[in-house]
């Protein structure tokens, strides 16, 4: 048992655990009445660990120690190690509390600066890698905890520990994290687990684990969206400046996202302040406690009790914001008055003066952006009265009014293509389609209930939103009010009011333009509710075409996706054409974010969230189903179409009612209710197909008894009718059950789950891309699949490192998931040079970089300065696994255009430096007797090559003398530091002499006498001289400036050798054959590359910023 003891004392001390820890190292601190001491058995020394003023406080400290520390001590065998570990942990906790006592490191610049210096020194990242925050914690390696420091930067999670002289460094890019979760292990009840492709790491013993996990989750989410989700990157400006991210920014961003999700506001809306207050709620005759949210264009309120009362006040509706007299009953009150002659009283507002001032500034800005006039009919004491004159035409339905200006409708009629002025259901009713009297009476009852509600709670977008209205919505909105209430609940009415004439101009611009999207829309027009009378005529089809085409023109990033036609069809049934357009905007751009794009990431994230909700709320069903994801995938169409294509239309519109009021939460809870209603049959189903049949039949028999229209036909007519009537479920009952049983999920919980599962979904896409990429490449290369996988990871990491530290970057270089798999990750010439240096077997010392540049130019077929993974691997495969002739062919191609260019930095003056060192013993010669046989051998070789030439599929250009010298220089560099270096130099000298003679033979045979013979004579002399380097016979000429034209351009054009010449010559030297045919090990290269890839990039970036910095200092 760990050596702990508790001792009461008489002197009062600090109450908090960490406050007590401060006293541990303070020799002047007074002894607390309760302490926890550490004693090593056999020692008379006691070390104080914690202290408290009361027994309750010291017990709380003991509980924390039991949960976070005691269980870990069993892994130590030595009691002295236990004491050292515990003391080290206590000191680290004290240091962390000192550094975070003000809750923000930025507020303690000295502490943060100290941590930043250590972070930079320990991990050697480029300066662009900004540290966000740091914590003291333990990292578990198996069963052994390592106490150290966790550093969270904008692109990486890093851990550093130094224990008994042994350092542990861990660097995990956020983009590699596949799962981030809170869990427990054998020793601790609460840890943070980081899961990457091959490893799991547990971190524990944080003072504030909730805060750490939240920041980790936010950093991972922001980084993955920035680097892997290109579509979101374009929409979210916050993601484009990662260097500006701080801990405070992350918290503000999370709060901003919650605010937009909770009130379903546009993405561009920026939250300015959140403060506690109370709102006067006349329906309850009291003040309701909650929080006020103020943003660019809205004032919002949410009660502390979820669902009790919410309020959305667009500033365009506000006419005045006034301070009232401060009293004991009404402390710090303000009054917000709106155009519909309602006023809202807020009290208990801290810093009221600055709040009102900032609100008035934004109020003036909002109204200044619209034509405005001063309302003289209002009371004199209101100083800020603005009325917009650019609203849509007045609409009245029941007692609900949506005010707007009539002049816009008139101008739209003159400038826009003809649009249908009414909702399609209204047209059908006017044409004679009437509902039975019983349905009309039910409809009238609902209208009466809603009218009563409007009187008490408000009738505009500024209405009080309470539990009562949720119940009315779940009963089904009356058809005559449905379209207008959809506009109010989604706040599409604000977009409609702020953009007069916008839809008409879009219709004008988009119609008649032929494109792929238009073709897709035309193909789906007649599949949209084909059984509904409204879409059996050109009136409905034309309206649907205009709305879909206009939206595709507005948002080309989304364009048109399947299921949008079904949704838009239903919107047109209950809303006017322009209203339906803005409802579609609200759904696609803020209520279902990222649903309607290339990869439907948003829908997949919600499917993953739904899967977790199934496990939480329906554990028995989840346990029975071997793969819960099968149920979630079945429900994909539920989310994409809001059940419109799944259950009868008259029932599905009630679901849409709930969706517009409660957002995606309504779909989650209804999905759970459907699964619960069919749990017994699902548990007895034999396979996924039968489960799908069960769910489809159930949903097909969900009816709406209150619907005034005739029941629409089933969407699942392919199921045969049963012998016995299938039991019917009323949609109102199903929705009521969903709210009662599964309505406890808050917006905050759903957003947290979305953040968690977005990481998994995006990484799932990355895994799919990787597997498809490997599936394409594996059949074409000889590199082992496991090595290919590591090469892919290195290639991707090289791409990512530039994304990390070189901002801003052109869009062409970012990850683009819309491209084919083989083209999603591409690297430029500098990135390729890094990888070439790390993994290529053809390392040539200082010449390596030049060879990498030529290789890149060769692989860059389309000259866009980028290459894909497939081209990179194909080249490496030749280097490692190709036959000798394939390797020589690759080398040959690297020394002719386009790889070798006129501007090549190493080929401007081929004779500027000697190819071979003159200090090496490379002189060779032949006896006169051997010379004749050598000439015969040469002539015979040329004849044989001429025969082979006809068999070549595609003849490569011949190599000029300048190109040949570069080829030789590369070979020389490749042989450097090889065990057979001397033999290889002798062999290449022999081959070079032979090739020079071959070039001369070809030059003489093709020359008509006009070519210069001086160069040839010089070459022959140089080649025949036994005392001179055969490759550089003109060394003396190089020394004399007047003789520097050793290879004039005219003669160089005539002197050529072919690939066949070079290959045949190389085959005459066994040492060269052995060099090119020896097996090469790629695994060791890959292991070294994984270790050195980061340091190479860091060195390059530091070298760029400090040119005088030398490699020896690294």
Automatic annotation (TrEMBL):
Boundaries of every Rab-GAP TBC domain copy: 476-663
Residue spans of biased composition, Low complexity class: 1003-1014
Gene: TBC1D8
Gene3D superfamilies in UniProt: EF-hand, Pleckstrin-homology domain (PH domain)/Phosphotyrosine-binding domain (PTB), putative rabgap domain of human tbc1 domain family member 14 like domains, Ypt/Rab-GAP domain of gyp1p, domain 1, Ypt/Rab-GAP domain of gyp1p, domain 3
Region of interest (Disordered), residue spans: 1003-1034
Source organism (scientific name): Oryctolagus cuniculus
Protein name according to UniProt: TBC1 domain family member 8
Alphabetized GO MF terms: GTPase activator activity
Coiled-coil regions, chain positions: 931-962
PANTHER family in the record: PROTEIN VASCULAR ASSOCIATED DEATH 1, CHLOROPLASTIC, TBC1 DOMAIN FAMILY MEMBER 8 ISOFORM X1
Superkingdom of origin: Eukaryota
InterPro entries xref list: EF-hand-dom_pair, GRAM, PH-like_dom_sf, Rab-GAP-TBC_dom, Rab-GAP_TBC_sf, TBC1D8_PH-GRAM1, TBC1D8_PH-GRAM2
GO biological process, alphabetically ordered: system process
Any Pfam family the entry gives: RabGAP-TBC
Function: May act as a GTPase-activating protein for Rab family protein(s).
Keywords for the protein's UniProt record, in alphabetical order: Coiled coil, GTPase activation, Repeat
